[in-house]
Amino acid sequence: MVTKAIEFKNFTKVFGSTIAVDSLNLDIYEGEIFGLLGPNGSGKSTTLLTLSTVYKPTRGDIYVYGHSVSREGDIVRRYVGIAFQEPKALWIDTPYELLEWHARVVGYSRSEAKQVVKEVMEQLNLWEHRKKMFYQLSGGTRKKIEIAKVLIQRPKVAIFDEPTAQVDVITKHALWDIIRGLREEGTTVIVATNDMFEAERICERIGIIFKGRLRALGRVEELKDQIPGGDIVEIQFEGDEEKVKRLLDSLSEIGKYQFSDHRVRIYLNKGEEKAVEIINNFTSLNIKVKKVMIQEPTLDDVFFYFTGSMLKEG
Ligand SMILES: Nc1ncnc2c1ncn2[C@@H]1O[C@H](COP(=O)(O)OP(=O)(O)OP(=O)(O)O)[C@@H](O)[C@H]1O
């Protein structure tokens, strides 16, 4: 049976006159990597900060394994660990002190804390930075310190707010492996990102949030299939263009098509399945197929379709 790790029930958060998140209803299942996507200012951080009990909902509620973030914050905090966009405990001077303090807060004894902090700092290549002051660290290193907090805590629900913004490409792949590793151990992972490539690489399901509202929800492939005429099948052929035209007009579920020099570009859904049917029809009409290309929409196309906005727009 699929267990719901998190349930957003009509969750709404208002700051003054700004509705940061508006009536969010969403279930996240145990053991999945869920991507929360949206342009800047769309409500991702507000959602995650409320889930991790930093904020309280204005209306509605969020449940973590059945426990309300509004009424049972202490219990929720035992389940949830969050890597913020930036380290926030700036009353502490060095990464080592911050992580040791964090390890103690989440329940390790003094000697266990020392051990786990060293292990995780080594895993993330942070050990050499342990005694530096925060202001001396690069953006990517600060990011890794936040991720180290989650690896130390090993929570049942791990939240990463833009985990790979500002990190180099090698570190990015290493962090994705770490996130997948957590999932393998049964952790439920939520990743907020506006990096479509990242979402496609690691997330099993995604939700697209825009201006505080959930606009789309599903597996990446499902969302791609929701764009009308989103796939393009391009066929290069030898034979009569008129015959091809008549054929395409007789087939169902075909959107627009365009001819140019014995090539036809056909806009449709489920391109891979439909291409086989089209090619079989070409063959039965003695039209020789020379080349077939299928283009799927990218996740960027999905994003533009559901938000009608550019990714980095405010
Ligand atoms: N503490 C706050 N006080 C007032 N307004 C806030 C506060 N936090 C967020 N907002 C507003 O709520 C809206 C959603 O912001 P939020 O930070 O949740 O978006 P986001 O999707 O995480 O953006 P980004 O990708 O830039 O981090 C924005 O209009 C923002 O200005």
Automatic annotation (TrEMBL):
Output the SUPFAM superfamilies linked to this UniProt entry.
Answer: P-loop containing nucleoside triphosphate hydrolases
Keywords assigned by UniProt, alphabetized: ATP-binding, Nucleotide-binding, Transport
SMART domains referenced in this protein's UniProt entry, alphabetically:
AAA
One Pfam match: DrrA1-3_C
Q: Which positions fall inside the ABC transporter domain?
A: 6-236
Signal peptide from the UniProt entry:
none
InterPro entries, alphabetically?
A: AAA+_ATPase, ABC_transporter-like_ATP-bd, ABC_transporter_ATP-binding, DrrA1/2-like_C, P-loop_NTPase
Recorded hits in PROSITE patterns, A to Z, give: ABC_TRANSPORTER_2
Q: Which GO terms describe its molecular function?
A: ATP binding; ATP hydrolysis activity
Q: Which family does it belong to?
A: Belongs to the ABC transporter superfamily.
| Protein name, entry field | ABC transporter
Q: Which organism is it from?
A: Infirmifilum uzonense
